[in-house]
């Protein structure tokens, strides 16, 4: 599962710059530590992902925007030394050169404080916010909008001075078709309602993000946490901002945050300077200008935007296209909610009918010796791969390095629209990065889909096509970016309940009842189902599965409702009684 383009720049020279080592990566670019041979100094070199330059006239737009960004000169905005476009084979490499800063990102600092159950002191919060507001005010006056202000884009140098990174990157890529692989503008936890709704934005979206960061520095978490599901987007659109009073007793601060995070941009601070001035009043125990509006607010708030439901998709297959943009993800999720409400309404009437028909359960097994479906799972010993039915469940053991083992249910049935549920865990003596999960639309050993988790608390979803691995959410990502941590995933030694819901080209994946993936995938129309287990360089992977079930997909699009624990047996989801916990 490697991406050759990710490492192909290492130890190469682009223009006058030597590329030494990769030091970071994001949705739009990779960052390398480099060396300027002319000025004889170390620099940071940001190289935009290659697929962004594939759009017509992107090179011209990049050069125009990079020149504009290079003209920005503010002590709290990272300076752009140089930029270039380099022809490399059949592609164009777009790079920006910046100072190599020593320090930590604000995200890393906040995460470290959270681990120690500590918070930034009030005076430090004020210093950081005033400096960031000054940087944004300067940029906004020059006509620049950041579009992705977040703690990960803020570095605090050795003097604790905040420096805003990545100005102009989102602007450069905004005209790229956002359904292209890997292109995303904005980060859900910090996105304004107008960004989420796909509407035109202005500098007030940056002010909204600044308000989110202020809340996070005080509370330790953003007002609406990103759990990897649709909920954070809906909360930005519809839910009132939580009070900060439980973290810091200062009603004046509540007023400032309330105004900065107004759903309607017209009711927000209209400039970063206005925001900073009011914030200084609040920290000085003076009444901010926002306080009058704060006191007069109503308990109920109006949602910022009502998104119309999309029309039903035509029956003909559409070209492969993932839900890459927040708007597409939102529309898909709103469709989910609308269908849920409709189904609940109809089911109330149907409850009184004797003709009510439940969803079809194709098969389920708890892998017990007397279960007729147990015989459909392969049992063998190939030396470095062992598969057998045990008292604990179906055990798959791999003692070969970096080896993926697909195990297909031998019913020979091919499924198109289906809900698949699997319960299993890695034994504590396994390599933590080992993966296991659900295979769907299996064609042969070189062509299928898989949704998997690992023992480190991560998940991922893939297509194996002609023997090549493609991560469906971000095909251009580096290998270390193709797995996503989630609190929904239990670690090694603990049971995980996985489910994949498929309806035509719509795919949703769940971990322990929580949706973690929603996307579109139509590489294969149908196929067999099975279990996926993969080892790491540790060559020590043992996975045990206690349940596997396949049913007709619930019309409510809530995969976890398609098969209840009663359908599968009351003990199916309990796992072994005494799983030893790993010794951390």
CATH superfamily of the largest domain: Exo-inulinase, domain 1
Share of residues in helices? 10-25%
Instruction: From the alpha carbons, calculate the radius of gyration and give it in angstroms.
Output: 26 Å
CATH class of the largest domain: Mainly Beta
Report the sheet-strand fraction: 25-35%
CATH architecture of the largest domain: Sandwich
Based on DSSP secondary structure assignment, what is the total number of beta strands?
Answer: 25
Shape: globular
Number of helices: 14
The number of distinct structural domains comes to 3
Q: Give the termini separation.
A: 28 Å
* pLDDT averaged residue by residue: 78
- At CATH level 3, the topology of the largest domain is Jelly Rolls
Q: What keyword list fits this structure?
A:
584 residues, alpha+beta, Phosphorylase Kinase, domain 1, Transferase(Phosphotransferase), domain 1, Jelly Rolls, nine-stranded antiparallel sheet, seven-stranded antiparallel sheet, 14 helices, 27% strand, disordered N terminus, disordered C terminus
Quick synopsis:
This protein is α+β, with helices and mostly antiparallel strands.
């Amino acid at each position: 599962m490697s991406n050759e383009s990710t490492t192909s720049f290492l130890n190469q020279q682009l223009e006058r710059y030597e590329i030494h080592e990769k030091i970071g990566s994001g949705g739009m670019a990779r960052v390398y530590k480099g060396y300027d041979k002319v000025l004889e100094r170390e620099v940071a070199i940001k190289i935009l992902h290659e697929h962004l330059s594939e759009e017509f006239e992107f090179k011209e737009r990049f050069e125009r925007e990079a020149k504009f960004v290079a003209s920005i000169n503010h002590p709290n905005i990272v300076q752009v030394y140089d930029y270039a476009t380099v022809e490399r084979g059949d592609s164009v490499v777009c790079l920006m050169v910046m100072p190599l800063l020593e320090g930590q990102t604000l995200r890393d600092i906040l995460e470290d404080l959270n681990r120690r159950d500590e918070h930034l002191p009030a005076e430090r919060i004020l210093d950081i916010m005033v400096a960031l507001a000054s940087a944004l005010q300067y940029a906004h006056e020059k006509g620049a909008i950041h579009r992705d202000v977040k703690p990960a884009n803020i570095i605090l140098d050795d003097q604790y001075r905040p420096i805003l990174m990545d100005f102009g990157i989102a602007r450069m890529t905004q005209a790229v078709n956002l359904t292209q692989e890997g292109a995303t503008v904005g980060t859900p936890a910090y996105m304004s309602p107008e960004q989420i709704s796909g509407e035109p934005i202005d500098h007030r979206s940056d002010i909204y993000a600044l308000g989110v960061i202020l809340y996070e520095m005080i509370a330790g978490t953003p007002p609406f946490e990103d759990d990897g599901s649709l909920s954070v987007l809906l909360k930005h659109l519809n839910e009132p901002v939580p009070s900060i009073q439980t973290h810091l007793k200062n009603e004046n601060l509540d007023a400032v945050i309330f105004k900065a995070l107004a759903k309607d941009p017209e009711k927000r601070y209209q400039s970063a300077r206005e925001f900073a001035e009011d914030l200084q009043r609040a920290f000085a125990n003076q009444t901010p200008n926002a306080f009058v509006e704060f006191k007069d607010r109503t308990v109920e708030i109006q949602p910022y935007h009502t998104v119309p439901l999309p029309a039903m998709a035509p029956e003909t297959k559409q070209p492969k296209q993932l839900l890459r943009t927040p708007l597409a993800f939102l529309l898909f999720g709103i469709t989910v909610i609308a269908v849920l409400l409709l189904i609940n309404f109809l089911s109330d009437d149907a409850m009184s009918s004797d003709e009510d028909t439940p969803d079809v359960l194709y098969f389920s097994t708890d892998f017990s010796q007397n279960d007729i479906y147990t015989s459909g799972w392969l049992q063998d010993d190939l030396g470095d791969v062992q598969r057998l039915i045990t008292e604990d469940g179906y055990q798959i053991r791999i003692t070969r390095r970096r080896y993926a083992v697909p195990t297909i249910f031998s019913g020979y049935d091919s499924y198109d629209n289906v809900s698949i549920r699997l319960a299993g865990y890695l034994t504590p003596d396994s390599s933590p990065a080992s993966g296991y999960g659900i295979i769907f639309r299996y064609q042969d050993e070189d062509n299928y889909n898989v949704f998997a988790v690992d023992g480190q608390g991560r998940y991922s979803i893939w297509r194996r096509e002609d023997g090549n691995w493609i991560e469906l959410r971000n095909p251009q990502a580096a290998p270390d970016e193709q797995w996503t941590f989630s609190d929904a995933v239990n670690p090694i030694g603990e049971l995980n309940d996985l489910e994949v819901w498929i309806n035509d080209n719509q795919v949703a994946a769940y971990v322990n009842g929580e949706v973690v993936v929603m996307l579109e995938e139509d590489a294969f129309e149908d196929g067999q189902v099975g279990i996926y287990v993969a080892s790491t360089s540790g060559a020590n992977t043992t996975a045990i599965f206690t349940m596997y079930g396949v049913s007709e997909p619930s019309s409510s699009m809530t995969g976890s409702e398609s098969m209840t624990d009663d359908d599968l047996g009351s003990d199916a989801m309990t796992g072994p009684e005494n799983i030893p916990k790993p010794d951390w």
